[in-house]
User: What shape does this take?
Amino acid sequence: MASVENTQEVDQLVRAKESAFLEFIQSKGLKTTRQRSTIVQVFFRMRGHISVEELLREVKLVNPKIGYATVYRTLHLLVASGLVEERRFGDGLARYEGRSEVEHHDHMICLECGQIFEFFNPRLEALQEKLAEENNFKIYRHRLELYGICKDVESCQHKKEMAARKAHKATGG
Amino acid sequence: MASVENTQEVDQLVRAKESAFLEFIQSKGLKTTRQRSTIVQVFFRMRGHISVEELLREVKLVNPKIGYATVYRTLHLLVASGLVEERRFGDGLARYEGRSEVEHHDHMICLECGQIFEFFNPRLEALQEKLAEENNFKIYRHRLELYGICKDVESCQHKKEMAARKAHKATGG
DNA sequence: ATAATTATGATAACGATTATCGCATTTAAA
DNA sequence: TTTAAATGCGATAATCGTTATCATAATTAT
Assistant: This one.
């Protein structure tokens, strides 16, 4: 679900993000540690909407001694630095996003296979602003999520897994 | 935050919702109990986006023996029946909505006072549908939340409480 | 190098929600 | 209206994601 890549482009991006993070860390008088560096590098090599567990799994491949707490703490720092956004899609766990194609975007979430698509539309943004203004409301941030079935419905990788999980959960209702 | 009312109109609405719930309960072969009846009546007398704790508090005024578990269970049944919607606004707890002015609506959430406003705009809905279709995505449901500052910013009731809470939480950051 | 500060890792604590289980209540049938 | 089977209840233990704690380790400025 969250793959790791290795290309020159990615290396460059990771270096840029890492130095931006270093700058943040130093500006706050915090310390630069091996663990933080590892976590940041691994995080920005991953694609998608990454959960703590997914990240920890990848991090442990590099340094198995790094634990939950440090991953949580570093993710909080990444969010505080503005390099990463925290999202919650209602499955009860936080997901983190640091490599979007577009700066701001909304989400379409497939209920069948769990895939998450990003999209952006300026008319949508403008309309929201207009509606807010009409109500004397000043928007700081917003969240739009469309839940449904994605175009790959026939080839959804996790279709059967999800169905099995549903059937399991439904036991007793 | 979630007040209880007592008017003839409300009585009528509560009766209608309750009978709809009974219908659902019976169609599923479940049992009609005093507790469920109490919880449903109390719930539909309340306004706003109600948390489990808020509901339990009100329920206990009618029947103090009713516990957490039954309130949770009944809320799940209400959601399953389609009479109630579950919402999560990112403060970590579920809120339930059973008496909206409009059938579907989106939300503006004031970060200062915590007030939640509902709104609906057909152009917004249409635009979402259009964008989904362009991506071959079929929307089942969606969620749009605008977070910001509301028009009552000067008179926000909970302004100070929130500020105090923030200050408390910020200890250690 | 040293001292002060901050971070780490293991795990306990937390808060919301869910599961468990013995007992009570409801329902359908007799 | 009793009876028997099924379902629901209340109290609370368990769970899950996340946060706090604390002794030890690493980093930084001197």
Remarks:
- Chain B is about 45% helix and 20% strand.
- Residues 31-34, 52-53, 68-69, 72-73, 92-94 of chain B lie near DNA strand C (CB under 10 Å from a C1').
- Confidence is low (pLDDT under 50) at residues 157-173 of chain B.
- Helices of chain B lie at 8-27, 34-45, 52-62, 68-81, 122-134, 159-170.
